User: What shape does this take?
Amino acid sequence: MKQRNRIYLLLLAFQVLFCWQTIAQTTHSTSATKYSLRICCYNLENFFDSVDDPQKNDNEFTPNGSYHWTQNKVEEKVKHIYQAITAMGGKECPAIVGVCEVENADMLKKLLYTTALKKYPYSFVHYESPDQRGIDVALLYRKDKFQVVYSCPIPLIYDGKTVSTTRDILYVKGIPTHSADTLHLFVNHWPSRYGGYAKTIAKRNKAATLLRHHIDSILQAVPTAKIICMGDFNDYPYDESIKQHLRAVAPDDVKSDELIHLLFPYFTKNNEGTHKYQHSWGILDHLIVNQYFYNAKEGLQISRSATIFKANFLLEDDEKNMGQKPFRTNIGMKYHGGFSDHLPVYVDIFF
Assistant: This one.
């Protein structure tokens, strides 16, 4: 009997110890990730108003232009983008959204202050770029979640030129609410492939080299900096602009000076990507971080991978190439009434 009681008490002691450790671990985990931020990126596909800007080549997006871009279409487009951003946030609207193909600040104001997004304290960072069509990048952010400390456009000047003729890279430095860490954000929309890959790759290589130079400058000054690069790079993860010039790879291929691509789980999957060309999906929209941020165990910590947001309403059946494809706004010059020709991506930060 005494032996049985001793065994019983020993088992009880182990149970108590196990429960105490479990509670302690749970409490520590909850404490360590009390706050979170969702950071998103979305190419909005020609987020234009319907007014002709004499300083830009935007005539196509006017009522009499080739897209017959009317105010009703503008309102429908704004409604769709607000719906996508709201849904992407999950339980609440996302803290930060990097956007591509925005014509001007007026369209951002219309999105943030005339839709249901006005319930949230959104603001934005935007600079007019020298892009001939008038499309820019911007950063939307919730002022209750993120405080902007500094921002600037980084002009991309091609070899042999003295001024920029394309969209800038946007740099934003800020501090998340309830955090002491600084977050460095780069929003990109690299030169397109119009004219063919071989004829245009040098331009994207130049953009990659420029971005990498600014990342290295930050890391040289602050090795523990936490950096996120996002946007439509118009190249795939295996292209030379990404692998050789930006030096961004999957985590299992990483070396000492390389960046980490957070969409790596999608690299080798068929029928997965952010953009579809004919029958093939591919990743043109990227979320890339520096190694210190990826491996951080304190302060701001980032998810080990990012997510392609594939909500059903952003997709439609692809009758020609099978499967599904992004439900886009225009097909050629014909109005199609959808959201965008790209799918958005996002990643979560915890602290």
